[in-house]
Amino acid sequence: MLILGTGGHIDHGKTSLVRALTGRNTDRLKEEQQRGMTIDLGFASLTLPSGQSLGIIDVPGHHRFIKNMLAGVGGINIFLLVVAADDGWMPQTQEHVNIVDLLGISQGVVALTKSDLVDDEWLDLVEEDIRQHLVGTGFADAPIVRVSSTTGTGLDALVRELDVLSQIVTQPEDYQDPLLWVDRVFSIKGAGTVVTGTLTQGSLVVDRQVVLGPYGHDARIRGLQVHDQDVTTAVPGSRTAVNLVGLEVQDVHRGMYLHYPGLRRPVRILDAYLRLLPDAPALLTLQQVKFYRGSLETMARVKLLGQDRLDPGNTSFAQLTLEVAAAFRPGDPFVLRHPGQDVTSGGGIFLQEGIPARGRRLRLVGPDKYRQQWPFATAEPFLDLQHLQKLLQADQPERARLTAASRPFWDSRDLLAQVGQRPEGVIDLHHFVLTENRWEELQNHVATVLKEYHARNPLSPGLGREVLRNQLGLPPNAFNAAIQAMSDVHETAHVLHHSSHLGALTEEQERQANVLLEQLAAKRHEPPTIEQLVEEQWPKQLLDALLFQKRLTLLEGQYVVTPAIIAAVQQELNSLGDAAGFTVAQFRDMLGTTRKYALAYLDYFDRRGVTLREGDLRRLRQKA
Predict the structure, then answer these.
(1) What span, in angstroms and rounded, lies between the C-alpha atoms of 592 and 586?
(2) Considering only CA atoms, which of 251, 254, 246 is closest in space to residue 207?
(3) What is the pTM of this model?
(4) Which end of the chain is less packed: N or C, by CB atoms within 10 Å?
């Protein structure tokens, strides 16, 4: 993608240069062309010798229309800075260069236009002046090409430079999560609403559902055009027109954005890294600024983190609160302008969605303040500036991993909306994810809680599962998946226990247990219930401990037997295991008991697959 910048108060031959390069005018009002001044965005395309096509965004150079320039600059990866040889470097040229530098665009060419109107000595002086102004930027070594739209001098050389840059510039990756910032919207008779913009990320496909952010309006793509050609798929980096079904023109305006459902979420509070330009006014904490992201222009309040004032040329972490939410991914750049002086003051990069921070200690407040801690954490939560520093220094994959680790767990869809890709080294718990370190932290905490509970309650089989889940604050599906994945945690009758817990009995309790087991053996065909045993003054804690140790077994109806009794009854079943099957009455008579006890045993065997029920009959499952 190519952007044409300029300095000065008039066009400086910019429109003429576009015509000379592309053979046609950019798409703008005739009145503007006649005045020789660009006040809004113009668009054209250029096919390079290599066959690659560049989309040209012709942006306004006049200082009063810098906000229009900012609407077009988002998503580009090559710039073309136009400087007229007879005027030289202008204040607006410097502002354009500042903006391009703040947005991290490092590939570009300088076109020194109207070279036929001055002599070579003057051209040398202007070129040297341009070189000096570019010192300290990310494109200090950008080539400078002398051109004339009138004579055609230098046009071939300029195209060759652009072709070279197009081969080395990094193309946007396609993560199948498109983002198109809307810079124009209009209606076409018979087609309906059309929006245009630069597809900065991902691909758009005809007939796919899309969402218009930040307000979440739904629509469907009826048609796509790239460089005036109908396509079924628009790829990252292309200048794209989208015909939408389900939206009226009045529903859409510049600054909104298109994306696929569920893949992005609007953000109003940003934790970010700011850089103030050397000649910008100082920035005070809680000051309001004009904020530019993509084609969006909105007001924002800046809270500097760790300081109250940011002087020109310096940097700071900050928390910005936007009047209008926008879509962000870690590392996305933005530009700030001073609202009173109407000058570009600086910019920054988005690091993470913020939680409101108060005071010098940056105490987190609001309903989401514990989002970055386990609910069982007792410490007051504060904004972690060291974490922001790590995000700043990391590359995109590492930022994704750090973001994943910033919370105890994520809904996998929310994490994908935040970082755009699945980070490496995350653990799945149902549709939730957490990092390996957080998973280890969770396992250690659960183990500690259970061991401490067992130490206080040695005879208890374990801690109620809902008690533990509420303490952890995990959603039910995530909690269930976590417990199932923990090898040292086991569940018995809706209580959880650690594998190290044996429910050890005292000598007196062991004597009582042996007496109980003997009594149950004598009543194996008419077993008592838990409630009956408690009424007979058997301690409930002792019964729970024996169930936990698997020295007692519960049948349907809370009837209590021992594993030895189960084994003996199962052995007796073999005498009924002929091909014809057996009835409940036959099983009852064989045991010499009543129907309710017979049914309790049979239900136990049915649930474990020992017997198979077929109507009124049961059969023994055949051993493999």
Answers:
(1) 10
(2) 246
(3) 0.77
(4) C
Number of structural domains found in the chain: 5
What are phi and psi for residue 445, nearest 5 degrees?
A: -65, -45
Burial of 138 (0-12, 13-18, 19+ CB in 10 A): middle
Do the beta carbons of residue 569 and residue 562 sit within 8 Å? no
Burial class (CB in 10 A: 0-12, 13-18, 19+), 592: exposed
* pLDDT for 375: 67
Question: 148 is written with which tokens?
Answer: 């004339």
The dihedrals phi and psi of 588, each to the nearest 5 degrees, come to -60, -45
What's the sign of the alpha-carbon dihedral 396, 401, 404, 408?
A: negative
Residue 594 domain-assigned (yes or no) = yes
Report whether 460 contacts 430 (CB < 8 A): no
Q: Which residue has the tokens 């280890």?
A: 440
Say if 15 falls within a structural domain. Answer: yes
Q: Which of 207, 224, 259 is the last residue of a domain?
A: 259
Residue 191: the pLDDT is: 87
How many Å apart are CA 310 and CA 326, to the nearest integer? Answer: 25
Quick one: three-class SS letters along 10-34?
CCCCHHHHHHHHHCCCCCCCHHHHH
CATH number at residue 154: 3.40.50.300
Angle (deg, nearest 10), helices 507-522 and 540-548: 80
Q: For residue 146, count other CB atoms closer than 10 A to its CB.
A: 21
Residue 267 lies in a domain: no
CA atoms within 13 A on the CB side of 547: 23
* Total count of residues recorded for the chain: 624
Alpha-carbon Rg for the chain, nearest whole angstrom, is: 36
Nearest Cα neighbor of 433 from 447, 444, 448, 418 is: 418
CA distance 282 to 386: 25
Q: 370: left (phi > 0), else alpha (psi -120 to 50), else beta?
A: alpha
Q: Residue 365: how many CB atoms within 10 A of its CB?
A: 12
Peptide bond preceding 476: is omega within 30 degrees of 0, i.e. cis?
A: no
**Which of 28, 6, 8, 13 is closest to 152 using CA atoms?**
13
Are residue 515 and residue 460 in the same domain, yes or no?
no
pLDDT of residue 10: 41
Q: 192-201 and 233-234: which strand pairing?
A: unpaired
Nearest Cα neighbor of 54 from 129, 176, 164, 156 is 164
Q: Which domain holds residue 185?
A: 179-259
Under 8 Å between Cβ of 459 and 545: yes
Print burial letters for 413-427: b (CB count within 10 Å at least 16), e (below 16): eebbbbbbeebeebb
Residue ranges of the chain whose pLDDT lies below 50: 1, 7-12, 24-38, 624
3-state DSSP of 542-581: HHHHHHHCCCCEEECCCEEECHHHHHHHHHHHHHHCCCCC
